[in-house]
Specification:
Number of strands: 8
Helix content: 25-40%
Number of domains: 1
Strand order of the largest sheet: 1-8-7-2-3-5
CATH class: Alpha Beta
Radius of gyration: 15 Å
Structural class: alpha/beta
CATH architecture: 3-Layer(aba) Sandwich
């Protein structure tokens, strides 16, 4: 049955991992996050160089953000310098259990509309960030997006989306 729904993008991969490091703190090196990101990319059959944008979990806490930055850097390797990253939590708040769904919607909007959402309220960029932190809204051709969602107890998830052609 045709319902005339507009296709915004497609989910091409996913990954989950636990790090069991601490009930409220991520592993200092971002190991669980890294495993979820790698798993999502393996599931999608994509390389870091093919990802145009990462919608980071980015809670704004030094511990979370630096460990996520470390995980993204380790995953992206030499491609990190060309990778755009931001988190939308500073704009909408941390929606707890709904955060991953809201960030997936933002990722699909970026794919469909060809823009990157900014990371707001950043006074100084952490030296750990080897990627391009999007600090102002910008137009950008986006073909592949990775969306990270991490939770208490070491629950880590990543989704890979591709623009629908």
């Amino acid at each position: 049955m045709d319902r005339d729904a507009e296709i915004l993008g497609e989910i091409i991969g996913y990954g989950t991992a636990t790090d069991n490091h601490h009930i409220t703190q991520p592993h200092p090196e971002g190991d669980g996050a890294l495993r979820a990101i790698v798993s999502a990319c393996n599931s999608a059959g994509i390389l870091p160089s093919q990802v145009d944008y990462v919608n980071a979990h980015g809670t704004g806490t030094p511990q979370n953000d630096s460990t996520e930055a470390s995980a993204i850097n380790r995953w992206a390797g030499q491609s990190a310098a060309n990778l755009y990253v931001s988190s939308t939590k500073a704009c909408v708040g941390h929606l707890l259990g709904a955060a991953g769904a809201a960030e997936a919607v933002v990722s699909l909007m970026a794919l469909k509309e060809g823009w990157l959402p900014p990371e707001r309220e950043v006074d100084a960029v952490d030296e750990t960030c080897q990627f391009r932190l999007v600090r102002e809204p910008m137009e950008h051709k986006v073909r592949v997006v990775l969306s990270n969602s991490f939770g208490f107890g070491g629950a880590n998830a990543a989704l890979a989306f591709r623009r629908w052609e």
